[in-house]
Amino acid sequence: MDDDACALVADALVETSARGVTTHGLRLLPGYLDDLARGVANPRPKFETIRESGPSALLDADAALGVVAGLTGAREAVRRAAEYGVAAVLVRNSNHFAAASIHSRAMSRAGMVGWAMTSASSRVAPHQGRDPLLGTNPISVAAGNGDHEFALDMATSQVCLGEVRERGRRGRSLDPGWALDPYGRDTRDPARAAALTPLGPGHKGQGLGMVVTLLTAALADAPLDWQLDHIEWAQAGEGRKVAHFLLCLDPARFAGRDAFAERLRDLVDTTRNAPAASAAAVRCPGDPERHREREAARDGIPLDPDTARALYVLARDHDIDAPGLRDAARRTP
User: Fold this and answer.
1) Mean pLDDT across the chain, nearest whole number?
2) Radius of gyration of the chain, Cα coordinates, nearest whole angstrom
3) CB 115 within 8 A of CB 141
4) Do residues 57 and 75 lie in contact, with contact meaning Cβ atoms separated by under 8 Å?
5) Can you give the pTM of this predicted structure?
6) What is the pLDDT of residue 333?
7) What are φ and ψ of residue 14, in 5° steps?
8) In CATH, 3-157+198-258 is 3.30.1370.60
9) Phi first, then psi: what are they for 106, rounded to 5°?
10) What b/e string do you get for 147-177 counting C-beta neighbours within 10 Å, with b at 16 or more?
11) Do 138 and 121 form a contact (C-beta atoms < 8 A)?
12) Partners of 60 in the beta sheet?
């Protein structure tokens, strides 16, 4: 990969881990390198504009890593929104997206309101269903900056698969309502989890998940969730054909940037100061991640032993001296 693309991926994974989203951070690096080695991801993709018209565009990512594909789409959305006030960019023929907030925050850092979504392989049973049909299909919306940044990043399932696997690695049970066993019954055993459950209760999470599939795969003429390879099962030499949706709005074209910034500050501050029902304060989307990011900037990124070992092996194989990783890898969970 060229240096610019490498920097995009490295910064995305470090930022995500620093913000405490360990399931989508540095833990993904070995898998991404494996995708490159097996030809699932293209290290030198040639992006192609399939169709464009003013504020809209459909790009083919040529099997790029999803971080590169999504951020390329985000940049294109920012460029078009600066000209037209709003832009919608679809990217198809991509791979794993990483954390959706990487892409929405890339647009918000440019002074825009950013909305990012991606299709994903089937992990989630529909409401009242038993078998996986939909992906975890995340939605991320970001605006503002600093202490008044709004940064929503949520799956449309109760929990992401990475958290289920993490509970299994640590010998911890799942929360009720997170997953179904092969017979469609609620299970708290990570090893028995055959399908995740949609965000609930009721049908609403399924509806949101289908909206994501509609605005990504269906709109881009890409494979639907159940037609995608899972991240760990992709065939060598063939990309996963994931589709992404990037929506960008320029506040300057609506009520104005200053007015928007003032209203956003009021929205965030009023929400945080709302009376709490318990000792835990009311928070806004992005508050926990921003707090962890500040801790990481001060103390470093805490790594679980499994991730530390995986990164240490990579460092050793590439002749990189990494005593901190070696020490972390020796710790027990």
Assistant:
1) 94
2) 20
3) yes
4) no
5) 0.94
6) 54
7) -65, -45
8) yes
9) -60, -35
10) ebbbbbbbbbbbbbbbbbebbbeeeeebeee
11) no
12) 48, 92
Q: HEC string of 12-39?
A: HHHHHHHCCCHHHCHHHHHHHHHHHHCC
What is the distance between the alpha carbons of residues 205 and 127, in angstroms, rounded to a whole number? 8
Q: Where are the domains of the chain?
A: 3-157+198-258, 303-333
Q: For residues 92 and 78, what is the distance between their CA atoms, to the nearest angstrom?
A: 18
Using DSSP's 3-state secondary structure scheme, residue 56 falls into strand
| Cβ neighbours for 237, distance < 8 A, ≥ 6 positions apart | 38, 39, 40
In single-letter form, the type of residue at position 155 comes to A
Partners of 91 in the beta sheet? Answer: 59, 244
Backbone angles phi, psi at 104, to 5 degrees: -70, -40
Q: Which residue has the tokens 């620093």?
A: 18
SS (H, E, C) 154-189: ECCECCCHHHHHHHHHCCCCCCCCCEECCCCCEECC
The phi and psi torsions of 291 (rounded to 5 degrees) equal -65, -45
CA 286 distance to own-chain centroid:
13
- The label of the residue with tokens 């710790």 reads 331
Rounded to a whole number of angstroms, the distance between the first and last alpha carbons of the chain is 34
pLDDT in tens, 60-109: 999 999 999 999 999 999 999 999 999 999 999 999 999 999 999 999 99
Q: Cis omega (within 30 of 0) on the bond before 201?
A: yes
| Tokens matching residue 234 | 């992709």
